[in-house]
Design brief:
It is a single chain. Helix content is 70%, strand content 4%. The chain is built from 7 helices and 2 strands. The chain has a two-stranded antiparallel ribbon with strand order 1-2. Keywords: Membrane, Transmembrane, Transmembrane helix.
Length: 196
């Protein structure tokens, strides 16, 4: 009975969202289910007491919301928003909210494994507003990661010498800090037969 109190209003909201396009003459998109599923995930995270079933159920609801938001139509994407000309989309919002819900659930129910999908979700939210933007941005990041190590390595003997000189000064500074942190010796060495 306790769970029915949670799920009956959620099913009612899902039916209303699904039938809203008939009543209000609004084009229906699957992405409209995403906020309802994320809200249901919040309710489940708060109401359920058992640790592991709550974490699993919140994770599945978040994935379902992201699956709905993944099919975002181009008409719902808003370009050129402040700051830095960001593009706002239901997918980006759903990724961010799902990550926040997963982090809160991981904190509340001690579900440490939920941190990984939350971090991945935030990473995808920063990558782009649509799946195509995400693929393009991730391929740019991959190319940058592939090319960066080669540009950081010294190419000539002079550059290697500068690196070694810098490393020697770094070790000198570390040694100085370590020697300054050692306590001063308080014992006095006396020769046998001497009096104080």
């Amino acid at each position: 009975m306790h769970r029915a109190i949670v799920f009956v209003p959620a099913v009612s909201v899902l039916v209303h969202v699904g039938a809203g396009h008939f009543v209000y003459d609004v084009p229906f998109h699957v992405v409209h289910f995403s906020p309802v599923l994320l809200g249901l995930a919040v309710v489940v995270a708060v109401v359920m007491r058992e640790r592991e079933p709550a974490c699993r159920f919140v994770f599945v609801l978040g994935l379902a919301a992201l699956a709905c938001a993944w099919m975002v139509p181009g008409s719902l994407v808003m370009d050129g928003l402040w700051p830095a000309e960001w593009t706002l989309s239901p997918l980006r919002i759903a990724l961010t909210v799902a990550a926040l819900i997963w982090m809160a659930t991981a904190w509340r129910h001690r579900g440490g494994w939920l941190w990984l999908p939350a971090i991945l979700s935030l990473g995808l939210a920063t990558a782009g507003a649509t799946p195509r933007d995400m693929v393009d941005r991730l391929s740019q990041w991959g190319a940058w990661l592939r090319d960066t190590p080669g540009s950081l390595l010294p190419a000539s003997l002079l550059q290697w010498g500068m690196v070694m000189l810098g490393f020697a000064f770094f070790l000198l500074v570390v040694g100085g800090i370590v020697s300054l942190r050692k306590p001063a010796s308080t014992s006095v060495h006396r020769r046998p037969g001497e009096e104080s």
